[in-house]
Specification:
This protein is mainly α. It contains 7 helices and no strands. It has one domain. 32% of the residues are buried.
Length: 198
């Protein structure tokens, strides 16, 4: 049965998680979160992501030049992507991450893989939002700087995911899990890039 949450609310816990990502993951697992709470975590992370994308649309380089109809269309598509597509993406990540972790000797089950993925997504969401806002601030600077700003959020997600999966599956080193994640992402990006020339 799901245990009561401590005082302070989810916002305090998701921000405080960065002080001890593995400890926060263990605390979440010990609370035995319901499927509804896990779904809330992943959808809330999507809504935070949507706030960042909305800010980019309003204050980014395209803000002053796109028409109102195009703006509303983009906002609608970003909302659908944030609430539905991103949720499905994280479910897929949980399946894939859990399978890979088990192949490497992980001890977590499907539910724990889901909890790790969704909690990591929520914990990383404020950093992703900050990176989106930072990309607006540095938009006038050379492209590499703006790209670096957006990369910070992706790295934060990868690091949070690695620590949470390591805790959920009983791995000693979160760094090794992060290296595996980074390697898999590099292989995927390389494959997509190679396909463009076939």
């Amino acid at each position: 049965m799901e245990q009561a949450l401590p005082p302070g609310g989810v916002l305090w816990r998701m921000l405080g998680a960065w002080a001890d990502l593995r400890g926060s993951m263990r605390a979440e697992l010990d609370r035995d979160p319901s499927e509804g709470r896990l779904l809330f975590y992943v959808m809330l992370s999507g809504l935070i992501w949507f706030i960042g994308r909305h800010a980019v649309l309003v204050y980014g380089p395209l803000g002053p030049v796109i028409s109102e109809d195009e703006f509303l269309g983009r906002v609608g598509s970003e909302f659908v992507a944030a609430v539905f597509m991103l949720t499905l993406f994280y479910y897929g990540m949980a399946v894939l991450g859990g399978a890979i972790a088990r192949a490497f000797g992980g001890t977590g089950d499907w539910r724990e893989s889901r909890a790790a993925t969704f909690w990591a997504a929520l914990v990383a969401a404020p950093v992703i939002l900050a990176s989106e806002l930072l990309s607006i601030i540095v938009a006038g600077l050379p492209g590499a700087i703006a790209d670096t700003a957006l990369t910070l959020g992706k790295v934060a997600l990868g690091w949070a995911l690695a620590q949470c999966i390591a805790e959920a599956h009983g791995f000693r080193s979160g760094l090794r899990v992060f290296i595996v994640i980074a390697g898999l992402v590099a292989i995927f990006v390389g494959a997509v890039y190679a396909l463009r020339f076939l």
